[in-house]
Amino acid sequence: MTQNKIFLYDLRVFLFPIIKRTIDIASSIVLLTIFSPILIIVCIIIKLTSTGPIFFKQQRVGKDGLFYMYKFRTMRIGDNDKFLKDNYPELWTKYKNNDWKLSANEDPRITTIGKIIRSTSVDEMPQFINILHGEMSLVGPRAYRDEELKEYSIKYPDTKKYIADIRSIKPGLTGPWQVSGRNKLSFEKRAKLDSEYANNRSILNEFIIILKTPFAMFSSW
């Protein structure tokens, strides 16, 4: 590699996190401003239609350790895993065997309004707060729970390298797996996509994923 190529590579490595963070902050402020009327309406509807807080927070794995990720609450309050296990044993078994996933339409833990909110991905919009705090990025791997990744590393030992890559960067509001099949993908495929993203990040790739995201959202309706 020539000196010029080395210089250009080092420059890209130096500038990438600065440009990415600038995009994160600017996009979050603009989108929160544009969608603020919708967000206010969603807050009111959640409060009027179910008992409990408007927002849901849960610890997730970030680049620098655990953090609380925010969403609009779409589930009933209480211990939802226990509720599913005690009242719907067949669905509980399916939930466990399907890498801790159920479709919103079949999940009895999700409220009626919650199903609508999830189908439009509006429940994810409070994560712009996490992005502004610097805990997440607009584009990145899925934000997993710590115990989830530990369980996957045992269940799918071949994904340990992928999991290490996922832990090495900030999780994202959107990312390669969200625009390539969303929850229909197995963990192994999701982890591989996230790992490939982590090792091949570029501004061009960021914009491609951002542009694909609305189409992925609409295709799930």
Which helices and strands appear, and what pairs or packs with what?
Blueprint: H1 3-34, H2 36-49, E1 55-62, E2 65-72, H3 80-87, H4 89-97, H5 112-119, H6 127-133, E3 137-139, H7 146-155, H8 160-167, E4 172-174, H9 187-199, H10 203-219
Parallel strand pairs: 3-4
Antiparallel strand pairs: 1-2
Describe the overall structure:
With 221 residues, this protein is mainly alpha-helical. It has helices at residues 3-34, 36-49, 80-87, 89-97, 112-119, 127-133, 146-155, 160-167, 187-199, 203-219; strands spanning 55-62, 65-72, 137-139, 172-174. The protein has one domain (3-75, 110-219). It is built from 10 helices and 4 strands; from the N terminus they run ααββααααβααβαα. The strands form 2 sheets. It has a two-stranded antiparallel sheet. A two-stranded parallel sheet has the order 3-4. A hairpin with a 2-residue loop joins β1 and β2. α1 (3-34) crosses α6, α3 (80-87) crosses α4 and α8 (160-167) packs across α9 (187-199).
List keywords for this structure.
single chain; two-stranded antiparallel ribbon; 10 helices; 221 residues; globular
Number of domains: 1
**Largest sheet: spatial strand order:** 1-2
Gross morphology:
globular
SSE run: HHEEHHHHEHHEHH
Q: Low-confidence parts lasting 5 or more residues at pLDDT below 50? A: none
